[in-house]
Amino acid sequence: MRVTLSNSPFGAQRARLRAQLRARRRALTPAERAAAAQGVARNIDRYLGLRAGDRVALYASLQEELDTRPLLALARRRGWRIYTPRIERARLGRKMRFVAAGGEERMNRLGISEPQAIHTIGARWLDLVFVPLVAFDAHGMRLGMGGGFYDRAFSFRRWRRAWRGPRLVGIAYSFQELPEILPAAHDVRLDFIVTEKGLIKCATGS
Fold it and tell me: What is the value of pTM for the model shown?
C-alpha cells in the first residue's frame, strides 16, 4: 500500500487510513494491549541504550494508543529526566512545549493529561523523544493524527543535517507499519520505530 501525505486531493485517503488503523487499535483486547505495551518497553530498554539523567520526552497515551505507562515506569526505574509535551496557545496558533513531568496535571481539550509545571525545555535540547503515530514505514515516515505539532516542534531537523539533537522514536503496534508513506514538505522523519516485535532503524537513525 502506497500512501501519500501531500495536500488535497489526498486528504480523504489519509482520513480513511487513519479511521481504519484506529479501528484496528480499538479492536484489541486488554490482554493484547498489555502484552504489546510491555514488549515495547522491553525493546526500548534493550536497544536504545538510554542512561540515567538523559532528557526524554514521553507523552501520555490516549486509550486507543499503545499504552505508555510501562515505558513511564521503566523511565523512573532507569532515572531518566522526563518531559511531557504540552499544547499551548501562541500568537500564530498553537505550539508544543516540553514540560518537566511531575506535579499538578490538567486535561487539555483533546482529553490528554498535561503537566502544569513552569519549567520547560527547548525541543533541541532533549536527548530522545517518543512520538505517537497512526501509521509508519521503515524509512521513518509517520502518519499522525493530523495536528502537525511534532512536525512543527522539530522542523529544524529538515535543514540541519549535522544536528546532533534528539533522536525521534515512534512507538506503535507492529500492524501499524505500511510499505511506504510518501513525504509532504513539512514532514519530519523518525530515527527509529519500536514495536512489540523489535526495533526498526530508519535512514536517519544513529
Answer: 0.86
